[in-house]
Design brief:
The protein has 158 residues and is α+β, with helices and mostly antiparallel strands. The protein folds into 2 domains: 3-99, no CATH class; 106-156. 46% of the residues lie in helices and 18% in strands. A hairpin with a 3-residue loop joins strand 2 and strand 3. The chain is elongated, with a radius of gyration of 19 Å.
Length: 158
């Protein structure tokens, strides 16, 4: 396969991926790499217009390992942007689906550190609003905001 075909197969994998930890990890890696690529391009020619996302032919999904390897092997900013767009859309879909499981008043547990994978201390609270980003009023005082995929239900408040 060519690098474009590998990238298209990676996109197909990410578009079907339901694991928010993988998706958030990938978008984080892409952000760092894209920032470096853009800085390099601008050092070469400040007036140069940066490319938009590449348009790739659809492909069969890669495996998880193949998709990650293909994403990490990309050296073309336009191709990296195409992967970023697909991953970003999928993150939004996954987080909206996760938010649909919670309604205001639902008792939940949230991680004190917002990040993927979910780890560390947790705190109980009550859902105030559930959208692509959750807002939870903590029982000990304060407010937690973060992705719905990090929230775990404890039941409905009395």
């Amino acid at each position: 396969m060519t690098s474009s075909q590998d990238a298209a197969a990676a996109i197909a994998f990410f578009e079907a991926c339901n694991d928010p930890a993988i998706l958030h990890q990938v978008i984080g890696e892409i952000a760092l790499r894209a920032r470096a690529m853009i800085a390099k391009e601008l050092r070469r020619d400040v007036d140069r217009e940066l490319p938009g996302p590449a348009e790739l032919e659809p492909a069969a999904p890669a495996s998880s390992q193949q998709a990650l390897a293909a994403m990490r092997a990309v050296v073309d900013l336009a191709v990296l942007q195409a992967i970023a767009v697909a991953v970003g859309r999928r993150i939004e879909e996954v987080e909206i689906a996760a938010a649909a499981e919670f309604s205001p008043g639902t008792r939940v547990s949230v991680p004190m550190r917002v990040g993927f994978p979910r780890s560390g201390d947790t705190a109980p609270g009550t859902v105030e609003s559930a959208r692509a980003s959750m807002r939870v009023v903590l029982e000990g005082g304060g407010v937690w905001e973060g992705p719905p995929s990090l929230v775990r239900s404890l039941g409905v408040a009395p």
